[in-house]
Amino acid sequence: MAPDVERIITSIGLGDQDTVQLLLDSYNTQYADCFFFDSETQERKQQQRLEEFRQMKVRECPSNSGSDEDSDQDKPDLLLRQDLAAALLRFVSGRLQPAVLRVCLHTLRILSRDCRALGPLVCDKALFTLAHLGGILQNTAEDEGRSGQTPGCRETAEADGVPPTETPAVSFSAATHTSPVYSSRRRGAEERMLVPGTKEAREEDSEDEEREEDGEVCRKEAMKVLCNIIYNSPRAQERASTLRLLQGLWETLKQGIWSRVPPSGQFYKLRLLFILTALRPELRLQLQQERGVPVLTKALEQCLAVRWEGGSEVVIDNQAPPISKKSSQDIIEILKTLFNIAHRFHKQEPDEEEAALCRHLAAVLRRCLLLPCDGEDTLEELQGHTVNILSALPLTCLDVMVAVPVEGAAHKCEGVNMDCVHALLLFMDRRLNRSQKLKEKLTPVLNLLTESSRVHRETRHYLRQKILPPLREVGVRPEQDGSLRGRLVRLMTHVDTDVKDCAAELLFVLCKENVGRFVKYTGYGNAAGLLAARGLLNGRRNSGDSQFASRYSSDSDSDTEEYKEARAKINLVTGRVEAEQPDPMEGMTEEEKEEEARRLISMINRMSRDQIIQPMGVTAEGRLAPLYGRMRGCTEEEEEEEEEEEEEEEEILDLNAMMRKDKQSN
Fold first, then answer.
1. Which residues on adjacent β-strands are paired with residue 308?
2. For the chain, which residues make up each domain, given as ranges?
3. 316, 318, 295, 296: which is closest to 305 by C-alpha?
4. Are 60 and 91 in contact (CB under 8 A)?
5. pTM of the model
6. Residue 56, class by beta-carbon neighbours within 10 Å (0-12 exposed, 13-18 middle, 19+ buried)?
7. Mean pLDDT on 205-222
8. Worst-scoring range by mean pLDDT, 153-162, 325-334, 371-380?
């Protein structure tokens, strides 16, 4: 690789655009799918560490990243990649042929994937240059002078650990970057730029279109490079915030959003907006102050082609074709950014203006939930981000999800349109089938359905019909059932406490927070965790335990004939009818039963003293408390008697063992 890179750098220094384009095309083809340039070295290091782990039993996790210290063998290649990045940044700062600019930016995108080679790309002028090429900043001589840096200086900006330069924050006006008209004639190699050319009038229209297409491709490539740099480098994130790159980006996006023409080519600008707001809290606050929520809601309406009826209801066209993959990508980026700046709403009581804004957004999000998409994966991702935002909005603003006409609804409950709730139920069902990242993927929808069921009676009734239908099969443990109820009950004993608590809370709310009904559907063993946390192990609700308790209706739970017949035989701990077991004390006298009970108590006391177990009991307040002192009596005389009895038992056991041994030897 080294000779090729050196030749590319030499050609860039000479300004030979044709040779640079040819060499970079080959380079890009070779490394198009490469994310670690030293993948073979990394694989060799991992194998070496695994072998050391097997031989020496060193408990350390092998690294998967390429961020380890560079070996002497890797360092020359790394330095060459840094030199190539620096040379390309100087090269693209001049005027190039569109094809040459495109291939240079493609190479920079490949190089920007390597965290160790980002040194030349994180200085201020490099960020300015890429932002200008991406169409989000006006690149002027004044800006370059203020930046005070030269891109590509590895000695001055080699790594993220370098202290930030003393550069003042600069305000930028938005300017859409347009590609100039270039001819194929080159003034000279030393200038490395082209001059505007002249074309025949009959060719101007087609060439203008080609130039615009080339310009759009170059802008996208520049934005891809900028996204990679800011995502991979904390130093670049800090500089982007200090230099206020967000302002130029936001102004450019607003121009496209508020224009009459639907925005195009905005995906990577939206992606950069998400990255900036996700990684820098101060930029989230800045975007909030710039009215980010209403503007992004407007962008969402454009992508969804929303039509309003009556000023507050989004028209749902069930015959509309599925949304394209390109539009769905823009929608997903908008939703992710909206969550970054709107998640604060659930922490406070909204004022009148914020409530109206949240209700408007919720109405648009309802459209997202019911949107047909090309591909199940795209639909699930879009709905997942929609659920995240809905779970962050105030509960009082979510009534618009069901406050729509019931005519034409595919799912209804007590005269209320349940299409949106049904979509959430299907989404939860799909996520339950996943075994990975349950906390991130499942808890938002569980929380959303739980809180919605608390405040909306029809929603709770509909979900209860689907999740907790009247019991008929009582011969199977609840957690072994393959239904939706069974899968939720299994989560009640999940190792992740957040997942466990969310699943239990949803079922508890669907049971109207009634302990008896909750135990009936889940079994006491599965329900014990939530009941202990709530202080409900004694079956009685504490006063004021739930602020929503008074909202539940007083209708009784209807039992099936199958359940009524088997009710007396159901084991409340397991939640099913158990096979009859023989009585272990059958045939024993009362004295033998008392003796067996004393032995059991003695064994429990012994294990409790040795801190093997800790016996617990339920207090009058419905919570667990240690039973050790009360059960044993805590008298010294009893302890001495128990110790003497234990010693006698051990002596008898030893004597019996000796007698058996003598008998065998004889």
1. 314
2. 406-469+484-541, 596-661
3. 316
4. no
5. 0.75
6. exposed
7. 76
8. 153-162
